[in-house]
Amino acid sequence: MNIEPFALERWFARYEHEADLMLAESGIRSLDASRFDLDAGELGYVVPTDGDPDLRARIADRYDRSAEEVVCTCGAQEANFLAFLALVGEADHAVVVTPTYQSLHAVPEALGAVTRVDLEPPAWDLDPDAVAGAIRPETSVVVVNNPNNPTGRYLDGETVRALYDLAADAGAYLLCDEVYRLLAEEPLAPVASMGEYGVSTTSVTKAHGLAGLRFGWLAGPSEVTSAARNWKDYTTISPPKFGQHVARQALAEEEEILARNRALAAENRDLVRSWVGRHDLSWHDPVGVNGFVTVPEGFATGRSFCRRVVEEESVVLAPGDAFGHPDRFRIGFGLPTGDLRTGLDRLDAFLDRHA
Ligand SMILES: Cc1ncc(COP(=O)(O)O)c(C=O)c1O
Fold first, then answer.
1. What's the 179 CA to ligand 1 centre distance in angstroms?
2. What is the domain partition of the chain in residue ranges?
3. Cα of 75 to ligand 1 centre, how many Å?
4. Do 7-26+255-354 and 39-252 share a fold?
5. CA distance 193 to 277
6. Pocket test for ligand 1, best of 25, 101, 154, 330 (most atoms within 8 A of CB)
7. 166, 83, 164: which is closest to 130 by C-alpha?
8. What is each CA distance from 320 to 77, 98, 237, 323, in whole angstroms?
9. C-alpha 278 – ligand 1 centre gap (Å)
10. Per CATH, is 39-252 categorized as 3.40.640.10?
């Protein structure tokens, strides 16, 4: 079994540590540990190893499901990984809506067969008929990330319903990575609440600003969660004890955390929107804190643009080729507004020199 290198992580590994400003982080700015009770007690495994039953029951309420239908994980990355291990064997096929976060196609590509169905620029629309055409008798899962990384496109409820119906009619699951869902002003109902073929993955990384907790979960029908549990004994055994302790508090005060984070996202989005307009670039006005922007004139690719920017201005952006679109770059604007302003000023100076 082979898997391709994770392009975005390799890019970050090269530049993030040394650079002054990170304008490529895909989540909201991180909360400080000091706002939480940090005494997690004995630092053993979480027991039971799929997450505290009360916490799972509370999470399950979001999906009208039972605690048994939730598995707590080390972030959404592990939740997705377990979902794919559970759903995609060698003889199976997945339909994956792209561009998307690389794991969502690379992992099923390593495990089985994948057909990608593209969102169509500039609005990044999805044609459900294209998904219908990609489904095969051996399709076990249709995969979507909504709101989408990198484009910020939030497919509407009607489209998600169409995807669910297509998957269910084929006896396949609809797996939706919903890590950005709670940054939307009006979040759609999660896919795991739509019916027996709905599976949702998420975490407290992006919308809550708690990446360092490494805490997420998978929710869906019990045949999927029990297969995921079976694999989890071989991956991380349990979610982190400390992560669970703090995530429980964050979820208890979620409304306040999310209200602040949505306000920050809206303020920063306005700033980036004017920056994009000022330089005659274009993007689809995003939900969440990622925008997928066209490359300024004079640069052959997003990668050459991003490389010059980080080398000359010490600002990290993400090249669009990491998402199969070399003519774009991704900007992440979830950071504190002052830092974003400084970063955009540096990009202005850079473009003034090179335009
Ligand atoms: C769509 C998507 N899913 C999952 C992840 C990973 O999330 P976590 O940090 O919770 O593992 C990311 C991180 O960028 C992401 O963009």
1. 7
2. 7-26+255-354, 39-252
3. 7
4. no
5. 39
6. 101
7. 166
8. 21, 13, 35, 5
9. 31
10. yes
Tens of each residue's pLDDT in the chain, 355 residues: 899 999 999 999 999 999 999 999 999 999 999 999 999 999 999 999 999 999 999 999 999 999 999 999 999 999 999 999 999 999 999 999 999 999 999 999 999 999 999 999 999 999 999 999 999 999 999 999 999 999 999 999 999 999 999 999 999 999 999 999 999 999 999 999 999 999 999 999 999 999 999 999 999 999 999 999 999 999 999 999 999 999 999 999 999 999 999 999 999 999 999 999 999 999 999 999 999 999 999 999 999 999 999 999 999 999 999 999 999 999 999 999 999 999 999 999 999 999 7
Helix H or strand E segment including 173: strand 173-177
DSSP per position, 200-236:
EEEESSSSSS-GGG--EEEE--HHHHHHHHHHHTTTT
Ligand 1 neighbour 200 (Cβ under 6 A): no
202 lines ligand 1 (CB under 6 A): no
May I ask the CATH architecture of the domain 7-26+255-354?
Alpha-Beta Complex (3.90)
- 288 touches ligand 1 (CB under 6 Å): no
Task: Check pocket membership of 211 for ligand 1, CB cut-off 6 A.
Answer: yes
**CB 177 less than 6 A from any atom of ligand 1:** yes
- Distance, CA of 202 to CA of 206 (rounded, Å): 9
Residue-level length of the chain: 355
CA of 79, closest atom in ligand 1 = 11
The residue nearest atom 1 of ligand 1, judged by CA position, is 101
